[in-house]
């Protein structure tokens, strides 16, 4: 149930004292889930606040609730809404969706022509993105900016990403293209129809990639072939993203 007392707004320099709390929770959350995350320093989070490229959620009395920030790549052609994190005390309150909606709105305002993308290992984030009009895509449709991929080096799954020649990993890629996109109602309905299948596929993807990487690391050759590259929207095309 959504909590009305939570304020979701664009972060300002007055919020920099929350930076360490935010980065500590990002790292703690990633460890608890057993998934990777590109680490960010408190100084980097402070920079985003000073630039007006972040959204923060707080209670009326100033308790930190959640956060997300904007990154730009390929000279502004691509925008990523990164680092979405919610305090454990406020999870399942609906605030994550509010933060995503606000950062998406801010991204469209600051970079109206940019493609907005994200990488996630979470089904809940996939649902939120689908409600906004994102669709699952191949990694080839994301920015190829070296600086972006360098940010993955601190992720525990970085070796898997590199073993796949940066064409795939445990994360699912999602994209909103302002010049060529489905209506949010369509992407939301697609996710609703196929959410159970998406969940099974994400689990299968994790199992398959980890097993394949272990075999490769131990010197055992793994199998597999290339599929035809195509834009994905339906559950059938989503198989390529494995």
TrEMBL record:
Any Pfam family matching the protein: Acetyltransf_1
Domain N-acetyltransferase as annotated: residue spans: 6-167
Family matches, as InterPro entries: Acyl_CoA_acyltransferase, GNAT_dom
Protein name: Acetyltransferase
